[in-house]
Amino acid sequence: MTNIPNQAKQVVQLLQGHRSIRKFTTDQIPSETIERIIHCAQMASTSSHVQAYSIIGVTDQDLKRKLAEYAGNQTYVETCAHFLVFCADLYRLNYVTKSKGVDVTETLETTEKFIVATVDAALAAQNAAVAAEAHGLGVVYIGGIRNNPDKVAQLLQLPEKVYPVFGMCLGYPAQDPEQKPRLPQSCVYFENGYPDIHTVAEDLKQYDQEVKQYYIQRTKGKRQDTWSDMMVKTLSTPSRTHMKSFLEKRGFPLK
Amino acid sequence: MTNIPNQAKQVVQLLQGHRSIRKFTTDQIPSETIERIIHCAQMASTSSHVQAYSIIGVTDQDLKRKLAEYAGNQTYVETCAHFLVFCADLYRLNYVTKSKGVDVTETLETTEKFIVATVDAALAAQNAAVAAEAHGLGVVYIGGIRNNPDKVAQLLQLPEKVYPVFGMCLGYPAQDPEQKPRLPQSCVYFENGYPDIHTVAEDLKQYDQEVKQYYIQRTKGKRQDTWSDMMVKTLSTPSRTHMKSFLEKRGFPLK
Predict the structure, then answer these.
(1) Which domains, and CATH codes, for chain B?
(2) Is the pLDDT of residue B57 over 60?
(3) Which chain B residues are Cβ-neighbours of A58 within 8 angstroms?
């Protein structure tokens, strides 16, 4: 990294060095570290200052065990030191406006506010992830909690107008995995307009080969998937088709 | 900050020091800095490696002027050095799976995949924001591009299954605003379950007073809004009620 300002170097290395960690030591995380991570999450941008998210920190071993099961038997949800559930939260806004005698239900039921709350939760989460990694912690996002969002919501006593967007395992790493190669920058970043995708078709093909080599190395040849192969496998069958009706039940009718 | 590991200190200060910047110098951003910021964005986590987002970097002055107008006459969209539009992108996945002869339309039309793509875009964006600030740049998120998402999509030639989630202004700061106080941690972070909201009612009231003092100081008494007042103003009238039909037209029927 040439010509990079010194102050930026450490941060860039941290961000570019991210790998998901799924094996953790049994070391606990000091509570002041958690507090600092959450403070970082809170300082992320939020649409019109609505702060439409909440974070549930799960340390209770029984709750973690159940969440691991609900997430599709992802054991690291149970074995990580601290599990965070990031929720899109319009309930608090409903409460403070009602306290002022104003009914804003119509607004809160729009697709727009669903986007706002989901994005607010995600921005806070990514700040938390970066802060955690700066403390030497490993993290992995757990979209799997959307496998059983009803059960997760019940277990964590989420009120209406709150939905669990994803979880995040935090813990001290007990593994040192390789980075999974990302798409070439030419395929995700475009100047002044979206290009004809055929202009990046060659780059996508090269990326397919890169991902294939990554899997061959990692699995000693057992797995030889290209990225396109992975995407076909992942997308061939619709997953979590319950999300629409789940959200409707939770007070997100996406109007 | 006591007991904080030295390596974490800089990152925590960066994240906790965030303020939105809306006034920029006329200095341009070196292209290698943009490239590095986008690389950081790309290394954020992504659901099942789908990488369901794209970023349009807008430097063309005419495009920026139009985007500023579409975003509700937010001049900083025009005056910032570099404007980024973060898009949820299922089009690329549609392309690579079709290239393999597989039709995954049913999957891509689910609410679940809408969440995945929106979250992917947001995680990438927050990494970009952090990387930019580490380089001494100022940033502000622009949800305003959802005021006229149709026009934005047309202007940037977004294909179907791609929608602009938000924009982000990047530039060297020409202002040094105060931080807007966030909700007390007790109101957004909960251990092992969502509490009865009445247990934090007092904290919410105190926060209302804190926000009021912030506005009194900042506007020399002209503005005296509490947070609850702000929320009533912001939420009384539904905004961007076109999002549902816009998304449907773009290939996100939220099934």
Answers:
(1) 10-178+237-249 (3.40.109.10), 185-224 (no CATH)
(2) yes
(3) 191-192
